[in-house]
Amino acid sequence: MRRIVAFNRVSADGYFSPPDGNLNWTVPDETIDNEAAAECERAMKAGQRGTLLFGRKTYEAFESFWPHALRYADAAPDPHKPGRSSTAMRAMAVFINDADKIVFSRTRKDVTWNNSRLLHAIDPREIERLKSEAGPDIMIFGSGEVTSELVKHGLIDEFRFVVGPILLGEGRVLVHGVTSRPALQLTESRAYPSGNVLLRYARRA
Q1: For 19-41, how does the pLDDT look when each residue is reduced to its tens digit (9 = 90+)?
Q2: How do the domains of the chain map onto residue ranges?
Q3: Phi, psi of 139 (to 5 degrees)
Q4: Is the Cβ–Cβ distance between 197 and 166 less than 8 Å?
Q5: Residue 45: partners with Cβ closer than 8 Å, 6 or more residues away
Q6: In the chain, what is the straight-line distance between the N-terminal and C-terminal CA atoms, in Å?
Q7: pTM score, whole prediction
Q8: According to the 3-state scheme, what is the secondary structure of the chain?
Q9: Helix axis angle, 56-69 relative to 87-98, nearest 10°?
Q10: Fold classified for 4-203
């Protein structure tokens, strides 16, 4: 049984992006990058292909960046900070490009990025079927509309937030339109010298 894990960077005042959706507000953290890269490399060495879920906007942002990151033999660029690159980004690029990618969109007609599949609506039964398969955790990045819909159906098992030491003042919240207020249990909190804080929450049964 696989879990769905939602990973997002959020500001200290609770926004996962400013109104224009740019990524340049995040605080770089080499340790967090290296931990994510090590997780990707462990999965690939074990022969486990990842599965990623996307809304259209996040998918198109990933599609415009990560395939090109493979051009770099060693250190690949950081999508959050132009001019910054690292070997961790290169490892993540390999994992993301190899992963199965499911994009939910009512407007796209097709998807051409390798290992991508287009679905026009979220069917909770199909998501449950994906979770019942063997393999590593299913990841969802950003994608507020999809995340909100999955929360409504109780399908996200863990939230991982990297809370950055910055105030945006305004922006987009990750989850909206959910009235049931599902309870979460804190399973890990870790502070980094950069000021970033990792918070992991599991969905209460």
Answers
A1: 998 888 999 999 999 999 999 99
A2: 4-203
A3: -110, 145
A4: no
A5: none
A6: 15
A7: 0.93
A8: CCCEEEEEEEECCCCCECCCCCCCCCCCCHHHHHHHHHHHHHHHHCCCCCEEEEEHHHHHHHHHHHHHHCCCCCCEEECCEEEEEEHHHHHHHHHHHHCEEEEECCCCCCCCCCCEEEECCCCHHHHHHHHHCCCCCEEEECCHHHHHHHHHCCCCCEEEEEEECCCCCCCECCCCCCCCCCCEEEEEEEECCCCCEEEEEEECC
A9: 120
A10: Dihydrofolate Reductase, subunit A (3.40.430)
Give yes or no for a contact between 44 and 202, defined as CB atoms under 8 angstroms apart.
no
Instruction: With cut-offs at 50, 70 and 90, classify the pLDDT of residue 111.
Output: very high
The two structure tokens encoding residue 152? 């409504």
